[in-house]
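User: Predict the complex with magnesium ion.
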Amino acid sequence: MPEAPLPKSIATVCLSGSLPDKLEAAANAGFQGVEIFEQDLLTHDGPPEGIRAMAADLGIGITIFQPFRDFEAMPEPQRRRNMDRAERKFDVMQALGTDLVLVCSNVQPSAMDDTARAAADLREMAERAAARGLRVGYEALSWGRHVNRWRQAWDIVRQADHPALGLILDSFHTLALGDTLDGLAGMVPGEKIAFVQLADGPRLSMDVLSWSRHYRNFPGQGELDLAGFTREVLAAGYRGPLSLEVFNDEFRAAPARRIARDGHRSLIWLDSVLAGPSIPAAPLPPAPVLDGVEFLEFAVDEARGRDLSDFLATLGFRKAGQHRSKAVELWRQGGVNLVLNAEPDSAAAGHFELHGASVCATALRVDDATRALARAEALLCSSWRERLGEGERPIPAVRAPDGTLIYLVERGDQGRSIWESDFHLLPGAAEAPAALERVDHVAHALTGGQMDGFVLFHRSVFGLEPNPPMDLPDPQGLVRSRAMADPAGRVRMPLNVSEGRQTATGRFVSAMAGAGVHHIAFSTPDIASFVAGRAAPMLTIPDNYYEDLAARFGLEDAALAELERGHLLYDRDSGGGEFLHAFTLSFEDRFFFEVVERRGGYAEYGAANAGVRMAAQARSRPWSPAR
Ligand SMILES: O=C(O)c1ccc(O)c(O)c1
Ligand SMILES: [Mg+2]
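Assistant: Here is the predicted structure with magnesium ion placed in the model:
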């Protein structure tokens, strides 16, 4: 097993922009190497020697030149022409200063189903390469005409039996076909593995070519077993680069530096997942143990702060504290703390300028804030410290991909004391019955192309695990949703994205000019009493919904009547766990609140009701203050 993480590399095809842009972004993100994708070189206006010099100046190696297509097992005269073509590409490689070329398995209908011929052709190519000090790697494309599995590619490489020829493994081609690397160690010597490419992907049922060319993503962003794949590669003794090769429509359209940083983050995360007794390199402090949301902070101005306080009061929140030196209020109910920040010249004020009234920070209770911050920084996140007033406690924070802050608060007495040290706490009024217990989940609306980056950020930094993606029907378009939660279910975070501009998600991101917290759900032990005992402006649910509930679940009349009276939505899981929830109207069509009651270990979010909720929201107007 390796003593240190393997070198990290990224293919230029992952990134947007010109070839120099791509090299700069890869170097900036901290990669040691790049794969030069041929298309990027031939659209570049300048000699390969210039790219070689640029890479050298940036301190980044060119790990491989790729792909060389449709080479092996062709009839004459293509066979001869392919040898000439190879020589031309060897010239380019020497100018680039890379010694390895990727040959992907032939997709041509005219290719022959002849392993011996394929082996002979690759042997001749390797012989020609070796004469120039170069090497050839052979990769099975999952849609190759006759060779689409790594075992077939290995069979050919083994038969060719040339020291300058090796096998290239690509996680996507292997895992997309439902294959694994079982048996690799023992079958393929580590030094015969010339190169390893990594890509994850969502589970989709479509042809592998389209899937591969449009939906690959970085390790940890998809649903394939990248850790298992990479473990097998290491067990076989491979010690070359781990290289990201991702074809993704959204990545191609996103800023190269952001995608390159996400890519490097994914490999650092993968190293940490692989680290164990047999792989000693453990470069990351462990993920924090999360104990829920300590507070959510809203950026407001004075007027919006008044409106939001009124809105919160209808839900039973009370002002519980005034900051000692800043225009910041604490509103509280049960275990839920909401901070309203109207302080000029603060991170919140900057957020308010850009986005208007909205959540600008989330505070997570962690077991060890220093360790959590160190992990985030090792995962290339930027940290933040707010300007402190006299005697205030510093709270470390990490910047999330939407620009909001995530504060790291240690739980227990110390964690609580952030309130005592920074606030004049008001005497607590007796809590109304059925008060809120805690923040149940915080749902985010994202703009197109942000989902994969958010999933990777929360998975790697905080150890939240993503559920499979699902589609939610809004009357104005589909909303794609992926929920994330920590193993204990203390921090839950559904992420939503929508191409429709008039969906609930689409309206939010246009009102907000970007991604942000779309709704906050609070838990209560008794939602029917909660709703009956509050003046909160709730979303009304049509009778047809309750008709259908009766049909689907066979609820007692009394239970059904109670749901209907409170405009409560209902769901039940396969284990009999139940979920009752209700929504407030929105605050300025920006964000809204949800109240939930979980019974019997229900761990989901009532996705079956999302369509009814979004249709009701499309009909309803935002709440307006009585004043
Ligand atoms: O989509 C392709 O053509 C292609 C090319 C080279 C690769 O390494 C690969 O995995 C896919
Ligand atoms: Mg590949």
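The first strand starts at residue 8 and ends at 11.
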